Amino acid sequence: MTSQSYQLMLRVGPEPGKVFELSKAELHVGRDVNNEIMINDAELSRRHARLVSQGGGYVLEDLGSTNGTFVNGKRLSGPHALQPGETIRFGDTVTLSYEIAGFDPNATVASGQAAAPAPAPVAAPPAQPASGYAGQVPAGPDSSSSSGPLANLLGNRSLMIGCAALLVVGACVGIAGLWYIDSNELWCDYFSFLFSACP
């Protein structure tokens, strides 16, 4: 067992912010449920790495994993004595930080005590998203362009309805005129060129 308490904080992976307390003399890391530190990610081997308590801290060792174990960006080729603040990466998608429990300010964010201060920084940036929205103005033409064809279609529909109404009115006037001519027997007066019998 170590004289000081250490932990791993999941920075990037399936559950960012999750804390793994290092409280045993030996812990295995991998995606299998039988590991003391189980991280459900395809980049991890079933039994990926091992942490062993040694010299007041922990030594990290890769167990022949497929995607490798990295400390501060360098792939491990043998056991590595971890120092607080170092970054551990398993494969390409899982990143953790090795920390002294209770001393890292980011670790306290995971506890319920520091959860209240977190909203204070969130309240400050609202002015910046407003400028971000201004930067998103180019997205506007897409929505307006989608309404453009609709407006054109409505305009064309109105034009078509207007033309149809004129045709109907014209047909009605024509029919009424022909009815008037027929009822008053004015065919020869208006259409004498059509009928040879007209005087």
Summarize the structure.
It contains five helices and eleven strands. It is of the alpha+beta class and 199 residues long.
Which strand order does the major sheet show? 2-1-11-10-7-8
The share of residues in extended strands comes to 15-25%
- Please give the largest β-sheet: 6 strands, antiparallel
- Helix-strand makeup class: alpha+beta
* Topology, number of strands: 11
Coarse shape:
rod-shaped
The string of secondary-structure elements, in order, is EEEEEEEEEEEHHHHH
**From the alpha-carbon coordinates, what is the Rg to the nearest angstrom?**
41 Å
State the helicity in percent bands.
25-40%
Regions with little confidence, pLDDT below 50 for 5+ residues: 104-126, 128-146
Ends apart, CA distance between termini: 131 Å
Count, helices:
5
Mean pLDDT: 77
Write a structural description.
The chain is an alpha+beta fold and 199 residues long. The protein is built from five helices and eleven strands. The chain has helices at residues 105-110, 119-123, 127-135, 139-183, 187-191, and strands at residues 6-12, 19-22, 26-30, 37-38, 49-54, 57-62, 69-71, 74-75, 80-81, 87-90, 94-100. The chain is rod-shaped and about 130 Å long.
